[in-house]
Write a structure and sequence with these properties.
Blueprint (H helix, E strand, L loop, with lengths): L1 E6 L2 E3 L5 E9 L6 E7 L6 E7 L4 E3 L7 E6 L4 E6 L8 E8 L13 E2 L3 E5 L2
Parallel strand pairs: 2-11
Antiparallel strand pairs: 1-3, 3-8, 4-5, 4-9, 5-6, 7-8, 9-10, 9-11
Length: 123
Amino acid sequence: EVQLVESGGGLVQPGGSLTLSCAASGYAYPTGCMAWFRQAPGKGREGVAAIDRAGGITYEDSVKGRFTISQDNAKNILYLQMNNLKPEDTAMYYCAGRHLAGCRLQEAIFAYWGQGTQVTVSS
């Protein structure tokens, strides 16, 4: 079993920055692919960014250039550094993990999910 716990969410003004963390615990770390998804009220869950074992990264177009995904393999922590935040970034952010190789912003491929952390961008 793998547990994922997000932290770092909160209220930030437009143009501000925030860094989210996702700590993984359990017997096995999802080394195949780790990702961030988000879900705004009334909308479906969308992929934000993903990183594979080799460090290959995929970003959703709307966050490219503003968000940076990274991971500390030694500590089993996934990060999402968010800069120049916009009101439309407001959502519940979830981290997700997958053991198998293959890293895509597709919700169905991830077996492990955290509880989420709320990010609100408002002035």
